[in-house]
Automatic annotation (TrEMBL):
Keywords per UniProt: Hydrolase
Lineage: Bacteria, Pseudomonadati, Bacteroidota, Bacteroidia, Marinilabiliales
Top-rank taxon: Bacteria
Gene Ontology MF terms: hydrolase activity
Protein name: Acyloxyacyl hydrolase
Amino acid sequence: MQTLSGQKKITINQSDKSKSIEAFYQNGRLLQTNSFVRGHNSFHESIDDFQAFSLRLKWHTNSSKLWEQVYNNPEYGIGFFMGNFDHSPELGNPIAVYGFFSSPIFKTNNFSINYDAGFGLTFNWESFELGQNANNIAIGAEQSVYIDLGLKLKYQLSENWSIGAGVSFTHFSNGALKKPNMGINTLAPKLLLSYDIIRNQKNIINDKIPPFQPKNNLSVSSYFGLKNVLYEGNDVDTTVANKGVYYPIYGLSNVIERQLTYKSKIGLGMTFGYFGAANSILTAKNGKLIKNNASLKDGFEISIFPSYELLVCKVSLVIQPGLYIYRRKYENQTPRFYQRIGLKYNFWSKYFVGINLHAYNFYVSDYIEWHIGCCF
């Protein structure tokens, strides 16, 4: 880890960092991104309204590390989320556990503007099921991913109390691990109240952050995923049809990157992949589903993409909009232009693992990629 010039030597343990409890309430709207929320449900009404409550435990960084200074002493922690929708009998009342990161864009002694990012797992959905909840094409499983992005204004009322307001976009999806999975998307304002249970102002003082020296690298990773396909016939049990089958997805991704700052990398990449569901025929025999994976020739794909990576300590947010430049035609083919967004964790200096959501039309999940790779 690069050190800082002019650094005052103060030993700070994790227990020395300030800790807060924060609660926020939201009341907003569902984005009408699929037919289920637009009214194709048992109530024959659009699902418009959404409200939620969240409780967070957060730690305040204190400039003891370079990345903390680069991000202007951000906050991070864990949160518990409870949501409620119109027509909850068909959707359920989701509960999420998530980690979050919040960094100031602008701040004074008592006021700050911050951006928030949260990522976790959601439970307690009433998911799609043939014969019982067949209208719910939005959520295909009882579990999903929770992704939350937002902005907030925060004001320090007193030594320990803060209030604030903001807005956030929240996406619920299982990454198409279980179909159908059109997802739930919400946009909602929020009000928050925060209390510092441990307040410590012991910060390391630095003359300045050292200039960053740009550098180049080649990132190479292999990935694996699964594509869920449901059976549309009526000659098998509904449980079997609802489960469907899983086709393999795997490949190799290569990115030539240049790290411009402590925070950002840009690059250009190419993926060579295999899509097992291409031109595959799903049939049934004796109550069981029979799949035939695509041949290597039929399933082979090549795509190119620009890449952006936001670096926060050892964790990175990866954004890669891509374009297929070669693949064979097959039925129900997704658009040539796709979007990949994910998280990457760096370890042992040059190795990393990651998880990416592969989507199209900017909101429809196609499948999840699990990556392991190395930087040269």
